[in-house]
Amino acid sequence: MKQGFRKIVAAGFLTIALTAAGCSSTPSSQGGENGLDKELNVFNWSEYLPDSVIKKFEERYGVKVNYSTFSSNEEMLAKVSAGGGIYDLTVASDYFIQPMANQGLIEPLDLNNIPNFKNLEPDLVNKEHDPGNKYSVPYMGNTVSLAYNPDNIKTSITSFADLWKPELKSQIVMVDDQRFILGMVLKTLGYSGNDTDPAHLEEAKQKMLQLMPNIKAFDSDSPKTLMINGEVNVALVWGPEIALAQREKPQITTVLPKEGLMITFDNFVIPAGAKHKKTAEAFINFLLEPEISAEIAKDFPYINPNTEARKLIDKETLENIAIYPPPEEMKRVESLKDIGDSVKLYDRIWSEVKSSQ
Amino acid sequence: MKAPVIGSATSSRPAATTPNRPVRDYGKTWTIGPILIWMSALFLLPLILILGVSFFTRSSFGGIELPLTVENYVRFFDPLYFKILWISCVLAFFTTAICLVLGYPFAYIVARSPINYRNILMLLIIVPFWTNSLIRTYAWIVLLRTEGVINTILMQLGIISQPLPLLYNETAVLIGLVYTMLPFMVLPLYASIEKLDKSLLEASSDLGAKPVHTFWKVTLPLTAPGIMAGSLLVFIPSLGLFFIPDLMGGSKTVLIGNLIKNQFLTARDWPFGSASSIILMGLTLLFITAYILITKDKEGKELL
Amino acid sequence: MRYSLGRKFSVFYASLIYLFLYMPIAILILYSFNQSKLNAVWTGFTFDWYVKLMQNSDVLEAMKTSLIVALISTLAATMIGTLAAVGMYRYHFRGKTALDAMLYLPIVIPEIVMGISMLALFAQLKVPLGYFTLIAAHITFSVPFVVVVVRARLAGFDKSIEEAAMDLGATPWQTFVKVTMPVIAPGILASAMLAFTLSLDDVIISFFVAGPASATLPLKIFSMVKFGVTPEINALSTLMLVVTLAIVIFAERIRMRKE
């Protein structure tokens, strides 16, 4: 009977081992005709790259792209830190690049393999978060923009400060993002959107508490639905959300708030230990081709930093200030920055504000 | 029907053919062994990792670093976090209570329906939940919103003149939670009521007990294990659930589930997130142990 | 007279609950025929989403992954859980209360913590992420539900019947199959259905333990949220619903005829 037991255990382990082996990614067969690998594991934000573009790359280079998605920087970080080189290419917001580089989670890029880098707008490269673009190449960006439906809102809205008007009771939808929303409140108070002074943050908390009655819902996923349904008439949400809502309700109007906007860009980075680095760089280069970049912009209307591609994007999109703030606005936008340990304080304030009711 | 694979080894043992006590030891190994091994490897081991992390310090980039500290536990003793815990408990309690009140008669009716229909009726309870929860929640939003189906019908019928605010408030959150958790109440109840011996109920009424009396004195006590199982399976997950409150309530409250999620996915404060989860688990463990100790006596008596 | 009134009320009450359960499902089905891409406003009738669904290999592939993971993990979880429930009912052993309490922990542990800690474990052990890790994780979070439901069914079950069977010469295995199983079968079925439901809908834990090429359907759907989950998913849900119901009714018909 011992024998029987052993057999079962052995069979069990065998099954486990086989399943595990079967699931591990097949070893990369190096050196195709173009010096690229046969496989590429891409980890991107959800809804950020059309399937058609991936298919084109696969066809042109004979590479199989395994594409999976995440919905926050932190989710991406958790999986990339688990290591094992499971991903060859991922995308990180600009304020995430320094922390990742400092922890050795990303590898320097070889810009020589990305000649299309030259297509990017000079103002949007070589930024503070990654001097010389050692680790990252900008992909797309967006602001958190303000919009309202003038059919149902009679009071004027020209600034963030107007959101506190009592007429707007239960009329606002906002992204559920503590950095952007508290940043907006800080800007309303005349501080930087990245302020970490506890006294200023206390002030912001009190101000935010007063705003709560006007907020009907926080929604980061699909706030446009509430605008389209008529559930709310004011939105402080991702720019592209406003553009999409306008497709159903053209009367929705974007406001450039007096206080100025906050912006964030996403960037390609290569996780440390990536098994197909060169192929990843070829993929980045491919996505920076003007036609390809314009194709992405058509499906996903974010700020496209690709000057060459912009020539191919329709005028209507380029002129939509919810997506592309005008140049004078772009000069004063504030980028979201890594605030280190102050994030604890932000989080506590956010919890307190939300638990106030 | 699934058990044979492992269990068959037991029967192939020569020793097993002689009935009686010694054989039982193998039974113990084969029944308790798998779960012990499985849960130790895939649940306890990761849990120990989390326990470890809860004593570290958040590094300024959001990783973990030394020194070891209990600061993360001390931090939780803050009126704010207690309030969050309290709100979560109240919400979970109401969800459980409503599920029980709605679900008990329903499970009873299904369990007492003609035997030919029972399986189908039971399956009909669970089948809606094989659709995606996100799509299902969106469907609820279509039903409940200001210009939604329910408001439109009520206004057409002239029952109301102004649309009712059905969405983005506590009622909506409760509807969403009760809807999602109802099968977790009904199925254990069904399994427990279905085995009720009808003759006991008949005996009770033959002895002149009123139906209400029979229910309180016979039916309810006999189905108590089902009630407890259902209540636990509703209460405990409701404590940590945040996805439905967020979508249907408009994310305007922080529940304990949100708090913990935020530590991992926004603040990148894994030590505090881990400590909060350990505290939540510790509290639940306290509840459960109390429940087990209380019911133990009862079960013992019943078995006599 | 009183009996029939009670009966009528029973049917009425059960219908109300079924209405509650199926109301959103009706909307879900309705919107699979909606022209608008957004799950928000009704704009007109179309079959387009069914056509698009059939061409969307990613979604179909994700559904296949989900079904495989759900079936295997339900089978395994039901097996492990039922055995444990029977063992805990039948035997007394040291640490039983501890095991009992421990089994509730996976139910209460926030999904994100379970997901991240499992990811850490797999990373430590260098287990590659993929089907195996997905199934292992799903078994882990389903098992406690099975144990709780089956134990509730077993509670109050007369041990002397089992003992009588054994005294009459039945092996423990025979006793289990011939005596215990029939009694707890409805409990096993109920718990298996819960496990299947849990597995089919899990997002958070799956996110952390899925490999680069093993997305489940809920993962796929959640990745579509930002630009609107297209009614293709409604169409898929509708088809799944119709197929499940058809199989169930067909199987029951056959069973009834046999009887």
Any idea of the CATH topology of the largest domain in chain A?
Answer: D-Maltodextrin-Binding Protein, domain 2
Gap from first CA to last CA of chain A = 65 Å
Instruction: Give the tally of structural domains of chain B.
Output: 1
Whole-angstrom Rg of chain A: 23 Å
Number of discrete helical segments of chain A: 14
Question: What would you report as the Rg of chain B, rounded to the nearest angstrom?
Answer: 24 Å
Indicate the structural class of chain A.
alpha/beta
Order of helices and strands of chain B: HHEEHHHHHHHHHHHH
Treating each run of at least 4 consecutive H or I residues as one helix, how many helices of chain B? 14
CATH architecture of chain B: Orthogonal Bundle
Overall geometric form of chain A: globular
**Helicity range of the residues of chain A?**
25-40%
Average of pLDDT of chain A: 87
Family (chain B): Belongs to the binding-protein-dependent transport system permease family. CysTW subfamily.
Main location (chain B): membrane
Protein name (chain B): Spermidine/putrescine ABC transporter permease PotB
Subcellular location (chain B): Cell membrane
Task: Please characterize this protein's 3D structure.
The complex is a heterotrimer of chains A (357), B (304) and C (259). Chain A contains 14 helices and 11 strands. Helix content of chain A is 39%, strand content 17%. By secondary structure, chain A is an alpha/beta fold. Chain A folds into 2 domains: 32-140 and 265-318, 3-Layer(aba) Sandwich (D-Maltodextrin-Binding Protein, domain 2), CATH 3.40.190; 142-263 and 324-354, Periplasmic binding protein-like II (D-Maltodextrin-Binding Protein, domain 2), CATH 3.40.190.10. With 304 residues, chain B is an all-alpha fold. Chain B has one domain: MetI-like (MetI-like fold, Orthogonal Bundle). Chain B contains 14 helices and 2 strands. In chain B, helix 8 runs antiparallel to helix 11 (224-240) and helix 13 packs antiparallel against helix 14 (270-303). By secondary structure, chain C is mainly α. Chain C has a single domain (58-258), classed as MetI-like (MetI-like fold, Orthogonal Bundle), CATH 1.10.3720.10. Chain C has helices spanning 2-31, 48-55, 57-90, 96-102, 105-108, 111-124, 131-154, 159-167, 172-201, 204-209, 217-223, 231-258. The longest helix of chain C has 34 residues, at 57-90. Chain C starts with a helix and ends with a helix. The A-B interface holds A 1, 4-5, 8, 72, 74-75, 77-78, 81, 99, 102-103, 176, 178, 212, 215-219, 225, 229-231, 338, 340-341, 343-344, 346-348, 350-352, 354-355, 357 and B 6, 9, 12-15, 58, 60-63, 80-81, 83-84, 87, 141, 145-147, 167-168, 246-247, 250-254, 258-259, 262-269, 272.
